[in-house]
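Journal club prep — side note

Before the paper discussion, L.F. wants everyone to see what a predicted structure for a comparable chain looks like in token form. Sequence:
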Amino acid sequence: MWAHVLVEPSKFAPIEVPAFTEADVAENWVLLRAVVGGVCGSDLPYFRGRAHKDTRDSKGWASGVPGLPLHEVVGEVLFSRHPAHQIGDMVVGWASKFDAITEFVLADGESLLKYNPAFSAVEAITIQPLACVIGAVERLNIKPGDRAAVVGQGPIGLLFSHVLSNAGAVVTGVDRIDRTAAADIFGVTETVTTMSDRWANAIDIPERFPIVVEAIGHQIATLTDVMTAAELGGQVFYFGVPDDPIYPISMQMMFRKHLALISGATIDRRRLLALANDYLLEHEGLRTKYVTNVYPVADVQQAFDAAVLPAPGQYKIALDMAG
């Protein structure tokens, strides 16, 4: 089967590798033909060369692992050992080993959902990150009219803005890239174009937020920024996979401001995928506007290069695995 592999940090090359067979499919797992993949911010550290837990070579990073790093996948079920998935089903969810830049993908059936046939495969890729965001927002105590700040208006931050707004919050979106054009689509009432530290340190005490989401990731300092922007008794959600095992935080700020710091991985995946499927059906604007750039898989290098350089008008980047 075809695959793409990182031959050095930030550099892909196409290769041929042995195809998976039914014997490779574990209990409750499925074999997929990859149809569409979504580039996620949590893939980018591995693209740049960070070691992955599934590294299978002596170089100590992602090199040599076919298909890595990509975990958001839409695919057709070719073989299933999971009772919820039948041959021919079109499903969306997690490629369990982050290795979906391949012709065929093995995945845990509990991390997949048969999506509504009204969606194209490109539209359906939205369901996976949306499920993660819905799961995060479920953990927040939101009252109608609450002011919420989402720091980082990339693909994940825009989904947070949409879901929080739909839950009744009044959303301020903060990003160093001008996201004004995205405001109406994603439910942002106020757009702020600046660095997060400048924004946070300029907020007067009465204007601080009861809910602040850190949707930038891949750095440490922004956690302090969102804590600074939170009001007394505020809720701070740190989203995404942490790049470092230890993040320094100001316990004095946590203590004095009575803050609640929330984070965590997405669990109960099939339930959240189902909620995301229904949510996407209800919001056509999100369904049609979220994915802005679709690259044929042969251009995976250009797709990842674009993902590390955010730009106005660029939201979600997807890979067409048939292209």
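L.F.'s comment for the group: The two ends are 15 Å apart (CA to CA). Keep this in mind when we get to the figures.
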